Predict the 3D structure of the following.
Amino acid sequence: MSLSTTATAPTPPAPPRTGLRRVSLTQWILISLVVGIAVGAAFPDAERAAHGGFAASDLRVLGTIFIRMIKSLIVPLLFSTLVIGIAGHGDDMKKVGRLALRSIIYFAIVTTLALAVGLIAVNLVRPGDGITLPAEAGEAAQLANKTPTVTSVLEHTVPQSFFEAAASNEVLQIVFFSILFAVGLAKVEGRPKQVMLDWCDALSQVMFKFVGLVMAYAPIGIGAAIAVTVSKSGLGVLRNLATLVLTLYGALAVFILLVLVPVALLFRIPIKKFIAAVREPALIAFSTASSEAALPRAMQAMEAFGVPRRIVAFVMPTGYSFNLDGSTLYLALASVFAAQAAGIDMPLGTQILMMLTLMLTSKGVAAVPRASLVILSGALAQFGLPLSAVAVILGVDALMDMARTSVNLVGNCLATAVMARWEGVFGEQPALAAQQATELERQEHAVV
């Protein structure tokens, strides 16, 4: 029996919005961002250090609670949706293999273009010229010691214990285990297989409801997170390194306009509807600088957009390990920035070699704040560039991390839609997609 044939009760229409209920969850998140920035600027850490009292960084616990709640649902959500997406096809593993191959090809092309955009931007603008590097880079050296090699990434992909991987929220290990588990389940016959599929289907439905409950708290957690960032760095954090930050933001904008938009047009993805679908998860990724925080909501949004669950469940989590467009572009820009700041003339051939190295070592990196700095520090050490450049970047990395993380999110959402179109199944369940969109709207109303 196929899961797709299971009857589903129609969802009642969303109640009319009155008063505060007219404010959607996306609007609440925008309001919380503005309030968080104001609170962070009004109660900076520097002021407390001088005179004591309250600082906005004291609100860190509210942001931490939001991140912890999100992390608590990542593993059951990924496991259940992946198993259904793969094993629900019966014995047709060719579909899974074809989807994996197409995803890898797409990821490789898009991340290569991201590296090229970053490389061109940093060579044209040269943001590192005129920067004075500090003598010490203790934190950067510690990050460099953590950088993974290609061998360690491959080894790290395979979990030695599912429960250990689940406890550590190792997304790539969970994906690896879930795929093997689903393939094994697909080979099982009769009632045991159906019982397990029904259990995973029930689990996934519960977890998506769980997402709605957690998102009701999102404006509070996001507002607190941005307040802490502004409190620690201050509104003037961009002054010394404004060129670097603006170069990154400009390069990301160019990447979206010259790469992601043409890809969407090529695969006939409705851009206006896509923007409406990803705006809320992108805001979450921007404000928390964590792809993990936006993952559950992004999966919901793309299903409502018309991408089948089996594709969302496979492409989205693997994309967070292999299709980090924003982080890849940032790595290209930041590595050459380090050479410019140190006054080192790096030939184009060396830059390209470094880009190839970054492309390999960035695969499998955790989608959490500052993970890109680990990769960057290791690449700088490998090519003999000063780690003190990382110490300079650390001052504004929070602002850059928000931008690159949101582009990671948008890039992976687009990848799911592209794969659905490539497989010829985009929007094949319009009734289900409409029902899920209505459910998302109902959850937004429930915030207040």
Remarks:
- Residues 20-445 form a domain with the Proton glutamate symport protein fold (CATH 1.10.3860.10).
